Amino acid sequence: MKAWNRTLAGAAPVALMLSLAGGVSAEEPAGIGVQLNKLETDGDDCRAHLVLENGMDQSLESFQLDLVVFDDDGIIQLRTAVEMAPLQAGDTSVRAFRMADTACGDVGRVLLNEVTACEGPDGAIERCGERVEVESLADQPFIR
User: Fold this and answer.
1) Residue 23 belongs to a domain
2) 2 in any annotated domain
3) What confidence score (pLDDT) does residue 18 get?
4) What's the confidence (pLDDT) of residue 28?
5) Which residues face 118 on adjacent strands?
6) Local confidence pLDDT in tens for the 144 residues of the chain
7) What is the CATH number of the domain that holds 72?
8) Prior bond to 29 cis, omega within 30?
9) 93: domain range?
10) Which residues contact 55 (CB under 8 A, 6 or more apart)?
11) CB of 49 within 8 A of CB of 42?
12) Where are the beta strands (DSSP E) in 43-103?
């Protein structure tokens, strides 16, 4: 029993060092953060501002998102594809897109329906859509 306790006691500092260092996550590839930062009225339209963080080790030459905008009752107001590239490796960028004939007050939530294109210098990036994390700082939720 004492040998078991010594083994656990010896493992504790190693576990602490790994947790403080962020652990070992070779299985978990870096991803892309997409944040709905704010909505802003632009005449009869609504302009959405997105903050994109490319945590991958390669630049994105194409990063196209299929977005669906719902009203507060869950009715689809707009579906659009937006190109967010270029995004340099490790960089954070802000992009905006206009939702034509859509008042910001009519936006209840925004859905990232699909990543329709994700390409780096060497072509399509495998499992790119699975690496995308969304969040919202706006009053409206941004969901997957």
Assistant:
1) no
2) no
3) 40
4) 57
5) 63
6) 555 444 444 544 444 444 444 444 455 568 999 999 999 999 999 999 999 999 999 999 999 999 999 999 999 999 999 999 999 999 999 999 999 999 999 999 999 999 999 999 999 999 999 999 999 999 999 999
7) 2.60.40
8) no
9) 28-143
10) 30, 31, 32, 33, 90
11) no
12) 45-54, 62-70, 76-83, 92-99
* Residue 30 tokens, joined: 């870096």
Give the sign of the dihedral formed by CA 90, CA 40, CA 141, CA 137.
Answer: positive
C-alpha to C-alpha distances, 87 to 57, 93, 94, 108, 110, nearest whole angstrom: 11, 7, 10, 28, 22
4 found inside a domain: no
42 DSSP β-pair partners: 45
Burial 19-35 (b: 16+ CB within 10 A, else e): eeeeeeeeeeeeebbbb
pLDDT of residue 21: 45
How many structural domains compose the chain? 1
pTM exceeds 0.85 for this model: no
* Contact assessment for residue 3 and residue 9, using Cβ atoms and an 8 Å cutoff: no
Residues 6+ apart with CB under 8 A from 119: 60, 61, 62, 63, 85, 125
CA–CA gap between residue 60 and residue 47 (Å, rounded)? 23
Give the tokens for residue 81: 């594809």
